[in-house]
Amino acid sequence: MGWSKERLEEVARTRLGGAKLIVVANREPYIHRYKNGEVEWIRPAGGLTTALDPVMQACGGVWVAHGSGDADRAVTDASGRVGVPPDDPNYVLRRVWLSKDDEEGYYYGTANSMLWPLCHQVFARPVFDPKHWETYRRVNETFAQAVLEEAEGGPALVFVQDYHFALLPRLLKAARPDLVTAQFWHIPWPGPEKFLVCPWAKELLDGMLGNDLLGFHTQHDCNNFLDTVDRALECRIDRERFAVQRAGQSTTVRPFPISVDPALAQEYLGNDWEDRATALRKKHRLGDRPLIVGVDRVDYTKGIPERLQAVDRLLHKHPELKGQFHFVQVGAPSRTHIPAYRDLTEEVNALAEKINWEHGTEDWQPVVFLNEHHGPEDIFVLYRTAAGCIVSSLHDGMNLVAKEFVTARDDERGVLVLSQFTGAARELPDAVLVNPFDVEEMADGLHASLTMSGSEQERRMRRMRGQVDDHNIYRWAGMLLSEVGKRVPDPVSVSVPAAEPEVEEPEPIAAPTAQERRQEHHIARETYLTAMYLASAGV
Ligand code: F6P
C-alpha cells in the first residue's frame, strides 16, 4: 500500500494519541493582503509551505508562524488565530506578530544573511552581526512563548521547521521537558570546517540538540551535522543508532527527503488548463512555440544567471533555434530587503535584456522574465505545457519545483533538466543531470529538452513519476511521525493494516561513502573554480 492522505491520518491518530500537533515555521501557509481595498489571500512561493500544508490538512493541529501579510491582523482573533485553508478551514494558523526590528535582525539578518549562505555552497559571505544574533535569540523566545501557550494543559508534539528556529527546541524542552520535539532542516548542512566559523555555532548546535528527532534531506547532510557536533561539543555520538547523547537528552538524526502531494497537480490544472495555457501564451506573446520554463524565488542559490547564460550559449551554438522557442522564467520576488537579492534581480533583468537585444527580433524575444508572484494555478499550467523545465540550483537541499514539474506531466512528456547539486538529483536520476557551473553542459541540457524523442521522454518521465508517486509528502510526514511518535506518551493503539510495516526503517546509517566524499570534493572544487572565475571577471 502506498502513502496517501488517508494513511497519514491513520498514522497520525496512532502515533499522536491524544497529543496535539504544533508545527512551527516562520512562513505562514496562507497570507492575507489588501488588494484594491479588499482582503485577499495567497499561497506564498517556497517549498516549505507547499510541502507542509497538505500534511496539516491531513493531521490537523496548529501552525505557528510569523503573520507577514498586511491584512493578516484583519482576519484573526485576539490571540492571532484563524482557521485555514481560508476557503475550507480544517486546521488553525496562529500568527505571531514581529516588529520591523525583529524582522531585520531575525529573518533578514541571522536567518537569511548568516545561516542561509553558511549552509549553501555558493560562496556568498555570511554576515555575522551580534545585533542580528541578539534579535534572533529574542524572536526564538517569542515563538517559544506562543508554542507554550498552544501546548498548555496537555501532551504535544512540536514539529519545528528550518533554520529560523535553531534555538527553539532547547527553549521548549527547558520549559516543558514532557513536550516531544522534532525539527526538520530544509536546507543543506555544510561540513564542520565551514559551519564552525560561525561565532555562535555552539549555541546553535546546543539549541538543535534540544530535539528528540532532527531530520535533514540526505544522509550526507546528517553526516555533516554529526561531524560538526563531534568537533564542537562535549557529547556522545552513537553511530550505530545515529543519535547524539548530551546532558541527559538523546537526539536521533535521520534523513527524510521531502516531497510533494502528486494529487495537487490535477487540482491546480482542473479541466480548463488548456484554455488558461492559451490565455497565458497570448498575454506574454509566446505564440505556439515550445517553452522551457524555470520557476524559482529570485535567490542567488538557484543559479538563474547561469541558466540565462546557458540560453545565450544555446543560441550561439544552435542559431537554427532562433525564433523556435521561448525561455520563460517565473521569478517570485524574495527577501528583497537584502542587498544581495536586490542586486540579483537587477542582474537577471540586465541579462535577459542583453540576450533579447542580441538574439531577439521584433516579434520574438527568447527570454521572458516574469518577476512577480504567481499562484500554483498559473505555475502548473506552465509545467504542463512546457517542453522542458530547468532547475539549475548551485546548491539546494531538495528542490520541489523538480518534483512538481513531474507530477504535472500525466502526458508522460517533458524533459527535466536538473542540477546535480540538488537533493532531488539523488531521487530523479532520469532527469538530464547537469553541472550548473558548466555553461556548455547546461546549453546541451537545454538543447536536449527541445530535441529529445517522444519515446525517450516517456521512458524517463514514467520512471520519475513513479518515484514521486511512491515517495510523496505523506510518506515523508508518515516516516517522521512514526519515528518521533515513539516518544509521545501513551499512544492510543489503533491498528495499521497488518501486511504493511508500521514504520519503514530509514536507510542504514553509514559514514559518508567514497562516492559522497568524491561528490563533496567535486562540489567544492567546482564552486571554488567558479568563484575564482567570477572574481577574475570582476563580478
Ligand atoms: O527551503 C528554505 C526556505 O527558507 C523555506 O523555509 C521556504 O520554503 C523557502 O526557503 C522560502 O523562503 P522564505 O520563507 O524566506 O520566503
Offer a concise description of the structure.
The chain has 539 residues and is α/β, with parallel strands linked by helices. It has helices at 5-16, 47-59, 72-75, 100-119, 130-151, 168-175, 192-195, 201-208, 219-232, 264-269, 273-283, 304-317, 339-359, 376-385, 400-408, 424-427, 439-451, 454-470, 473-485, 514-536, and strands at 20-24, 31-35, 38-42, 62-66, 81-84, 91-96, 156-161, 180-184, 213-216, 236-238, 243-246, 249-255, 291-297, 326-332, 367-370, 388-391, 415-419, 432-434.
Can you walk me through this structure?
It is a single chain. The termini are far apart. Helix 14 packs across helix 15. The protein has two domains: 270 residues, Glycogen Phosphorylase B (Rossmann fold, 3-Layer(aba) Sandwich); 207 residues, 3-Layer(aba) Sandwich (Rossmann fold), CATH 3.40.50. Helix 13 links the parallel strand 14 and strand 15. By secondary structure, it is of the alpha/beta class. The longest helix is centred in the C-terminal third of the chain and has 23 residues. The radius of gyration is 23 Å and the shape is globular. The chain is built from 20 helices and 18 strands. Strands 5-6-4-1-7-8-9-12-11-10 form a ten-stranded mixed sheet, with helices on both faces. It has a six-stranded parallel sheet with strand order 15-14-13-16-17-18, sandwiched between helices. Helix content is 46%, strand content 17%. 6-O-phosphono-beta-D-fructofuranose binds next to helix 2. Pfam families: Glyco_transf_20. InterPro entries: Glyco_trans_20 (IPR001830). Belongs to the glycosyltransferase 20 family. GO terms for molecular function: alpha,alpha-trehalose-phosphate synthase (UDP-forming) activity.
